[in-house]
Automatic annotation (TrEMBL):
InterPro entries: GH (IPR017853), GH_1_N_CS (IPR033132), Glyco_hydro_1 (IPR001360), Glyco_hydro_1_AS (IPR018120). Its EC number is 3.2.1.21. Belongs to the glycosyl hydrolase 1 family. This is beta-glucosidase. Homodimer. It comes from Lingula anatina. Pfam families: Glyco_hydro_1. Residues 1-25 form the signal peptide. GO terms for biological process: carbohydrate metabolic process. GO terms for molecular function: beta-glucosidase activity. The keyword DNA-binding does not apply. The active site is at E409. It is an enzyme of class 3 (hydrolase). Keywords: Glycoprotein, Glycosidase, Hydrolase, Signal.
């Protein structure tokens, strides 16, 4: 009796392990999941100021680093600029109409700092800029659409770059003043705030690699770390300003949006690849998330590796700056939710590089690659890997205590002008289905989803060559007319259904092989256990 009992328990235990392994591996081929999103799930779409507004010198707006960068040869693929872009500066009604038709509950846009403060300081507050955002916010509210506002989507006032940009700690104070002005002027109607969009891209692509404004690439092992340090402190101060001065009356919420790919192990059975994947995740997402969402400080693996390399280079201090104990306390927990932008996935292995110069890219001792079977998009970096989003959401849940999370960007590019964007429909269908699985099957605390982008726009260094829009924009027409793509119709229906309606029986897809295998295993184990009992 005793022994039968223990045999059964052992069997149950191994069955559990077996299923867990199957579930772990199953992200890839887990079949499509038909269900609804939780009630109150937030549906949104996003843009950013420099990418859509145009009006680059209207209303006493000051010059920003993207104006300077695009006006200087030859940083942009098609030599274009955001001088006019989608002309959203003059097309508030058109944009709100698109949003209304989609049926989104929220719209994520950003404020152009140099429109509000020409030189980035209180000395040059511009009423024309403030008026533009007031008109936009009021039009949204009238259409029953809630604004979700990003304070910094990469367009730094040029005057602040001229004093060193994010490498200068004075920007903590300037950003705080700018944030306070926005809370004061718009916070009666804006209840969701994001301080920074993708600080990783700001510091790495802008100040390490140099493909984005301000185009700095001479110190790729130092400038990004220094600038990240300033940005993390700036975020924390702005969060505290909201918390201390505005939260009790305005009753909104504020956080930061971090971008992360899923960086999985190339060989999931290799301990070395798993360690490399973890390092790569910590060096990209953990760099910003660890201080804010965990313990006020950089990930241990970053501190260790960069300190060691710095010592080998003969330096007396690490290239990674340190937070003081009081700064750590000030930074830790400065979030009301987790903002996440996600597009793609890479496979990671260990690689030791001996670059001539210190470089963030080699500090992590990792190399990334892609599975050749993954579908490509209009951007060379973007591989379509829907299950990667589910893996990433689970990693965030496990590392940061399952915070409330909003997906603040997700989308795909092409280089066509076609309204028949079937590949984008498939992209959204499959990525959003993985969000649903993360919520319903894995218990991830995802509260909202945002499609990038409302419309085709200025895609940074790629100019107008890569298009992410749910709506097509004709950039050769001065009126910049917008037209819905097939993906806009798809997204609209998805929002209306708040999920995926089960197909009618005739068209039901068959169960995938992995799913079948786990069902068979479960049945066999159940029968064995019954027999032995
Ligand atoms: C968001 O960034 C952003 O918030 C939106 O504003 C934006 O419109 C949207 O995404 C869509 O992009 C091949 C170092 C070519 C320098 C491979 C490393 C170019 C430059 C791989 C790595 C990649 C989403 C430009 C994150 C900008 C694309 C950030 C992803 C340029 C590359 C690179 C590469 C690299 N990034 N973006 N790039």
């Amino acid at each position: 009796m005793r022994s039968k009992m223990s045999i059964s328990l052992t069997l149950v235990f191994f069955a559990f392990l077996g299923c867990r392994t199957l579930v772990r591996c199953a992200y890839q081929d887990d079949p499509f999941y038909y269900d609804k999103f939780p009630d109150g799930f937030l549906w949104s779409t996003a843009t950013s100021s420099y990418q859509i507004e145009g009006g680059w010198n209207s209303s006493e707006k000051g010059e920003n680093i993207w104006d300077r960068f695009t006006h200087t040869c030859c940083h942009i693929e098609d030599n274009s600029t955001g001088d006019v872009a989608c002309d959203s500066y003059n097309k508030i009604q058109d944009d709100v109409q698109l949003l209304k038709s989609l049926g989104v509950s929220h719209y994520r846009f950003s404020i152009s700092w140099s429109r509000i403060m020409a030189d980035g300081t209180n000395a040059t507050i511009k009423s024309g800029g403030i008026d533009y955002y007031n008109r936009l916010i009021n039009a949204l509210k009238k259409a029953n659409i809630e604004p979700m506002v990003t304070l910094y989507h990469w367009d730094l006032p040029q005057a602040l770059q001229d004093i060193g940009g994010w490498e200068n700690e004075l920007l903590v104070g300037y950003f705080n003043e700018y944030a306070r002005t926005c809370f004061k002027r718009f916070g009666d109607r804006v209840k969701l705030w994001l301080t920074f969009n993708e600080p990783f891209v700001v510091v790495w692509v802008g100040l390490g690699f140099g493909a984005h404004a301000p185009g700095i690439s001479d110190r790729p092992g130092e400038a990004p770390y220094k600038a990240a340090h300033t940005i993390i402190k700036s975020h924390a101060e702005a969060w505290h300003t909201y918390d201390n001065e505005f939260r009790s009356t305005q009753k909104g919420r504020i956080s930061i949006t971090l971008d992360s790919d899923w960086k999985g192990p190339k060989d999931p059975n290799s301990a070395d690849d798993k360690a490399a994947s973890e390092r790569a995740m910590q060096f990209k997402l953990g760099w910003f998330a660890n201080p804010i969402f965990k313990n006020g400080d950089y990930p241990d693996v970053m501190k260790e590796l960069i300190a060691n390399k710095s010592a080998e280079e003969g330096r007396s201090t690490s290239r990674l700056p340190e937070f003081t104990e009081s700064e750590k306390l000030r930074i830790k927990g400065t979030f009301d939710f987790f903002g996440l932008n996600h597009y793609t996935t890479q496979l990671i292995t260990t690689q030791y590089r001996s670059d001539k110069k210190p470089n963030y890219g080699s500090d992590m001792d990792a190399k990334e690659s892609q599975d050749p079977s993954w579908q490509r998009a209009g951007s060379s970096w973007l591989y379509v890997v829907p299950w990667g989003l589910r893996a990433l959401l689970n990693w965030i849940k496990d590392n940061y205590g399952n915070p409330e999370l909003y997906i603040t960007e997700n989308g795909v590019s092409d280089r066509n002008a076609s309204l028949q964007d079937d590949h984008r429909v498939e992209f959204y269908r499959n990525y959003i289905n993985n969000v649903l699985k993360a919520i319903k099957k894995d218990g991830c605390n995802v509260k909202g989803y945002t499609a990038w982008s409302l419309m085709d726009n200025f895609e940074w260094a790629a100019g107008y060559t890569e298009k992410f829009g749910l709506h097509y924009v004709d950039f050769s027409d001065p009126a910049r007319p917008r037209k819905a793509k097939k993906s806009a119709e798809f997204y609209k229906q998805l929002i209306k259904d708040n999920g995926f309606n089960a197909p009618t029986s005739a068209s039901a897809p068959t169960v995938g092989p992995r799913h079948r295998a786990s069902s068979v295993l479960f049945m066999v184990v159940t029968l064995l256990v019954k027999f032995l009992m």
